[in-house]
Specification:
Blueprint lengths: L1 E3 L4 E3 L7 E5 L7 H8 L7 E2 L6 E2 L1 E5 L6 E8 L3 H11 L2 E4 L2 E7 L24
Antiparallel strand pairs: 1-2, 3-7, 3-9, 4-5, 6-7, 8-9
Protein name: RRM domain-containing protein
Organism: Tetraselmis chuii
Subcellular location: Nucleus
Length: 128
């Protein structure tokens, strides 16, 4: 949020994602509990590819055991709701004794520094 003295108004930065990553939840959590909790701040986005459409919630599981890990992602219809979820829920108790961490989600492989190749290959280079 910033004050625009030229227009004499407040301006808000739009988050670049509508999805938040959460961790620290109990491992017996249900998708319905997560939806109910996060929907306090906004409408949960629906995956319209599914019939009927289902909420975009992913609870991560251990690959070898299939047990829930206590983390996942949830997508909101409005990116501002995602930003609010970080402000309101990060470092709070989901249940007593289960302090959770909430942050804006990043796509897999996306670094905080932005775009770019890294490593070998990438654009241009080589030959004369």
């Amino acid at each position: 949020m910033a004050f625009d003295s030229y227009r004499n108004t407040l301006s808000f930065d739009v988050p670049d994602t509508d999805t938040v990553y959460f961790s620290g939840l109990p491992t017996d959590i249900t998708e319905e509990e997560v939806i109910k909790f996060f929907s306090q701040l906004g409408t949960i986005k629906l995956n319209k590819k599914n019939r009927p459409p289902t909420p975009k919630v992913w609870l991560y599981k251990d690959k070898s055991t299939g047990a829930l890990k206590g983390d996942g992602t949830i997508a909101f219809d409005d990116p501002f709701a995602a930003g609010s979820a970080v402000s309101w829920f990060n470092d709070t108790d989901f249940r007593p004794g289960h302090k959770m961490s909430v942050s804006l989600a990043q796509r897999k492989g996306q670094e905080a520094g932005g775009y770019g190749g890294g490593g070998r290959g990438g654009f241009g280079g080589g030959g004369r």
